[in-house]
Structures are given as structure tokens and as C-alpha cells.
């Protein structure tokens, strides 16, 4: 088996472990995949595996390691002109910072992520990031900001789930009450 086959096999196994919520195993497999990509001088794939590793570590409650692993991957994607993955790297780093209770740094990166995703027209991913911003604002006691962020998140989604449609109707009603019916 050559290294590219090993990489694909490891990546598939890692995704399977992640789906099965075996985050420690997923992290180990993504780490190995990242090393193969790095040694094969495939910086983009290595950065992608590091981002996946970071998410796995975060899910396994290893926030400091998650932050360390994801740091710098945004720059790899930026240099490649891949704004979508750059935005995802910002979001992953923000999630690690949030888990470490470094809220201001997390907020700044979530906002950078949301802006890049807006530029790339990634509405569903942007909605996810805006919801993360809203949750963080709520945690910080910034309730009005959280409501505005959640409204923006729901407005950016193409298809809302049932509970999201209800929340959207409530937000629209509150907005009409605050600004007068039109």
C-alpha cells in the first residue's frame, strides 16, 4: 500500500470513529493521517487533517491540544486561496478558545469566520457560526446581541427545521413589536 492509499484509509477510519463518537480513536487516526500528508508535502491535506484532529480533540475534552493543533492552519488555507477552509479553521480555533474560556479571542475568530463564509456564499456554514456567536454572546450576558446574531443565523439559512421556524416567528414578532408594525 502506498502512502496516498494509507492516507485515504486512515481518513475514512477516522471519520467512521468520529461518527461512532470514539473521539480518542478519531484523533489518533487523524493525527496519523496528518503526519502522512505532511511527509508527502501535501500542506493542504495536512491542514485539513489537523482541523479534523482539532475537532476530535475538542470533542474528547482536550481543548488545549485542539487549539495547538489547529493553530496556523488558517494561514495554510489563506495562502492557497481557500476561503471556505480558512473560515472553518477560524471557527475550529474559536471553538477551542471558547472551551478554554478565552471568550473575547473566540468571538473575534467566530466573526472572522462568519465574514469569510459570507464572502464565499456558504450560507449553512455561516448560519452555524452565527449560532455559535449567539450562544457565546448569551453566555457572556449579551442577550440582545445574542438575539440579533440568532436572527441573522436563521435569516441566512435556506431551510429551517421546525423549531427554527418557530424561533424565527418569535424573533420576527418581537422585532415588529420593538419597531412598530409595518
Describe what you observe in this structure:
This protein has 182 residues and is mainly α. The chain contains 10 helices and no strands. The longest helix has 18 residues, at 162-179. The mean pLDDT is 92.
Structure in a nutshell:
Helix content is 82%, strand content 0%. The protein has 182 residues and is mainly α. The mean pLDDT is 92.
* Main sheet makeup: none
What Rg, in angstroms, do the CA atoms define?
A: 18 Å
Summed over residues and divided by their number, the pLDDT gives a mean of 92
Shape: elongated
SSE ordering: HHHHHHHHHH
Name the helicity range.
over 70%
Number of strands: 0
User: Which regions contain 5 or more consecutive residues with pLDDT less than 50?
Assistant: none
**Tally of alpha and pi helices:** 10
Strand content: under 5%
* Terminus-to-terminus distance: 67 Å
**What is the structural class?**
mainly alpha
Amino acid at each position: 500500500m502506498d502512502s496516498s492509499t494509507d492516507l485515504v484509509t486512515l481518513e475514512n477510519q477516522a471519520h467512521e470513529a468520529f461518527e461512532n463518537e470514539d473521539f480518542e480513536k478519531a484523533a489518533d487516526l487523524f493525527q496519523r493521517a496528518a503526519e502522512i500528508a505532511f511527509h508527502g508535502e501535501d500542506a493542504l491535506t495536512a491542514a485539513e487533517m489537523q482541523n479534523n484532529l482539532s475537532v476530535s480533540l475538542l470533542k474528547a475534552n482536550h481543548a488545549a491540544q485542539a487549539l495547538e493543533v489547529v493553530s496556523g492552519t488558517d494561514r495554510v488555507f489563506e495562502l492557497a486561496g481557500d476561503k471556505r477552509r480558512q473560515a472553518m479553521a477560524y471557527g475550529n480555533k474559536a471553538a477551542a478558545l471558547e472551551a478554554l474560556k478565552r471568550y473575547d479571542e473566540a468571538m473575534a475568530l467566530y466573526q472572522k469566520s462568519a465574514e469569510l463564509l459570507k464572502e464565499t456564499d456558504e450560507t449553512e456554514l455561516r448560519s452555524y457560526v452565527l449560532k455559535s456567536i449567539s450562544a457565546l454572546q448569551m453566555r457572556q450576558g449579551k442577550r440582545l446581541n445574542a438575539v440579533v446574531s440568532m436572527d441573522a443565523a436563521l435569516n441566512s439559512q435556506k431551510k429551517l427545521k421546525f423549531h427554527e421556524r418557530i424561533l424565527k416567528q418569535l424573533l420576527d414578532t418581537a422585532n415588529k413589536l420593538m419597531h412598530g408594525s409595518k
